[in-house]
Design goal:
Blueprint: H1 2-14, H2 19-32, E1 36-37, E2 51-56, E3 60-65, H3 71-74, E4 76-82, E5 87-98, E6 101-109, E7 122-132, E8 135-142, H4 169-172, E9 176-179, H5 188-200, E10 206-216, E11 221-223, E12 229-232, H6 235-250, E13 256-262, H7 279-287, H8 291-299, E14 302-306, E15 309-310, E16 333-335, H9 346-358, E17 364-366, H10 378-386, E18 389-394, E19 396-398, E20 405-408, H11 411-424
Parallel strand pairs: 1-2, 4-13, 4-14, 14-18, 15-19, 16-17
Antiparallel strand pairs: 2-3, 3-13, 5-6, 5-10, 6-9, 7-8, 7-10, 11-12, 12-20, 16-18, 19-20
Helix pairs in contact: 6-11
GO molecular function, one term: aminopeptidase activity
Organism: Pseudomonas peli
Keywords: Aminopeptidase, Hydrolase, Metal-binding, Metalloprotease, Protease, Zinc
């Protein structure tokens, strides 16, 4: 099971270089499992025992199974994650021609570790909006092969490189795509038009706009002397999306279960399709009882917000509280913050710990050092939007927000097991 899950995750990561592709990958897997797509612009007819999913902006997805037991009686079980990861986004008018090279201007999306982006084989993917036959349409594209690189400056020309230096995103991050001859003009939109033709077999009249991101072409892999680790891009937080999907597909039919994977977490979640927007509540109000019964249902429910946790790094152990250093391959981590950067409380933490113990899943705890700031997740945002009790958890990870992150190869199976048990829980706190 562990090997199959890890290989499934590797394939999912490869198919999901952007939030748009991640959402499409999740939708494809849900369709194969019998889930029915619901259009937000149409009327819905849902029934007990039904399986459904909804997408918004092509980058967020909510999937749910309506249980045999009425939600008003048993509540709903929600698992939350996010589809986006820090990356480099192409600017609207990106063409740069310097010293005979064709480069693209980029904007940093989210809190990315910038240094690891140098000297990587990069490709480009995302959503393109274009005009064809007088209509405005959109399609996803993925160049797949390495088409760009951001070369480092040789140490001979930067003797202070190993002392650390501030990377200027404006001047030092534009990737190189080609070497041009003479006065040959660079036309990025023509490049996109050609890619649309290759992938989708049509000619666009004009590329109107795009949301395109560079990504590392190196595949995720199980690594280490004993295969102890998974290395790959976008583990934060496609790892949790994949775990939630596997748990939802394995969940029994008795209880109502929801998987919500939203975009824009890395930039604050404030959007129409982010956790700080109305999407989840709007979907739930369309499938749950109205008025008084809606609030009663939510108050009988629980959200497990799944996002990666900081594992204790052997070279930087002093960055952790000495009593709270989560270890890779030692199970999911309950994340706690007194200032509500995480939404966990004693009741929800106790329930999750109970689930782990009942299912023989190891469990850990994390709080940040008292003299350091704390990141946040969709947990507090969703809890404040919906009023649902929440526990923030995640799998321990190294190099979070790097172009290549590291997690334990045993932990995915642990997380899937406890989330499946959560979806099957007859009683919530």
């Amino acid at each position: 099971m562990r090997e199959d899950l890890n290989q499934g995750l590797i394939e999912f990561l490869k198919a999901s270089p952007t939030p748009f592709h991640a959402t499409a990958s999740l939708a494809q897997r849900l369709e194969a499992a019998g889930f029915q797509h619901l259009d937000e612009r149409a009327s819905w007819h849902t029934e007990a025992g039904g399986r459904y999913y909804v997408t918004r902006n092509d980058s967020s997805i909510i999937a749910f199974k309506l249980g045999k037991r009425a939600p008003l009686e048993g509540g709903i079980r929600l698992v939350g994650a996010h589809t986006d990861s820090p990356c480099l986004r192409v600017k609207p008018q990106p063409e740069l021609q310097k010293q005979g090279f064709f480069q693209l201007g980029v904007e940093v999306y989210g809190g990315a570790l910038l240094a690891p982006w140098f000297d990587r084989d990069l490709s480009l993917a995302g959503r393109v909006t274009y005009r064809r036959d007088g209509k405005v349409e959109s399609q996803l594209i993925d160049f797949q092969c390495p088409i760009a690189v951001i070369p480092n400056l040789a140490i001979h020309l930067n003797r202070e490189a190993n002392q650390g230096w501030a990377i200027n995103p404006q001047s030092e991050l534009p990737p190189i795509l080609a070497q041009l001859s003479g006065d040959e003009p660079a036309d990025f939109r023509a490049l996109i038009t050609d890619q649309l033709a290759r992938e989708h077999d049509f000619s666009a009249d004009a590329v109107l706009d795009y949301e395109l991101s560079f990504y590392d072409t190196q595949s995720a892999a199980v690594i280490g002397l004993n295969g102890d680790f998974i290395a790959g891009a976008r583990l934060d937080n496609l790892l949790s999306c994949y775990a939630g999907l596997q748990a939802l597909l394995a969940a029994p039919d008795e209880e109502s279960c929801v998987l919500v994977c939203t975009d824009h977490e890395e930039v604050g979640s404030c959007s129409a399709c982010g956790a700080d927007g109305p999407m989840l509540e709007q979907v739930l109000r369309r499938v749950l009882p109205d008025g008084d019964a809606f609030v009663r249902t939510i108050q009988r429910s629980l959200l497990v917000s799944a996002d990666n946790a900081h594992g204790v790094h052997p070279n930087y152990a002093d960055k952790h509280d000495a009593n709270h250093g989560p270890k890779l391959n030692a199970g999911p981590v309950i994340k706690i913050n007194s200032n509500q950067r995480y939404a966990t409380n004693s009741e929800t933490a106790g329930f999750f710990r109970h689930l782990c113990l009942e299912n023989e899943v190891p469990v850990q705890s994390f709080v940040t050092r008292s003299d350091m700031g704390c990141g946040s997740t969709i947990g507090p945002i969703t809890a404040s939007q919906l009023g649902v009790r929440t526990v923030d958890i995640g799998l321990p990870t190294f190099a979070m927000h790097s172009i290549r992150e590291l997690a334990g190869s045993h932990d995915l199976a642990h997380l899937v097991k406890v989330l499946t048990a959560f979806y099957a829980s007859a009683e919530l706190p």
